[in-house]
Design brief:
- α1 links the parallel β1 (about 5-10) and β2.
- By secondary structure, the protein is α/β, with parallel strands linked by helices.
- It contains five helices and eight strands; from the N terminus they run βαβαββαβββαβα.
- α3 packs across α4.
- It has helices at about 25-30, 40-45, 70-85, 120-130, 140-145, and strands at about 5-10, 35-40, 55-60, 60-65, 90-95, 105-110, 115-120, 135.
- The strands form three sheets. A four-stranded parallel beta sheet has the order 2-1-5-8, sandwiched between helices. The chain has a two-stranded antiparallel sheet with strand order 3-4.
- The chain starts with a strand and ends with a helix.
- The chain is globular and about 45 Å long.
- The structure holds iron/sulfur cluster.
Amino acid sequence: MKTKIIVSACLLGENCKYSGGNNKDEKVIALSQDFELIPVCPECFGGLPIPREPSEIKDGRVYSKSGKDLTDQFLTGAEHTLYIAQEKNCPAALLKENSPSCGFGKIYDGTFSGALCDGNGITADLLNKNGIAVFGESKVDKLVFLYK
Ligand code: SF4
């Protein structure tokens, strides 16, 4: 039986990005040869529409570009994603880098300028705190090495 891995749906080509597009990544899609991929989009789980305004984290809360506080929606999406990961027994997650939901280690800094700062997206942080190993798309090889 293949190990189950949580994956950001936008990396698999689903048009769930804030812009209505995706972040399709062939290397991530190819993971399906070795793993059962469980697609998630925490922002959609949180009830946010497609397309939507971009959001970033500032002082521990999530704001849309026009200043709307979306922290509750992001937390709902994170909890829903954690529920799925635990229900499916996923030891790891492959999540989109830099996102305020999915980023791990580095995220956009809250100024909507494209600048990054140290930190985790809301979902990546919750998964990590619950023992699920989080990798960004540039770390696919590491995930394969550790979990195949
Ligand atoms: Fe992709 Fe995550 Fe943003 Fe959804 S919340 S579009 S999965 S980066």
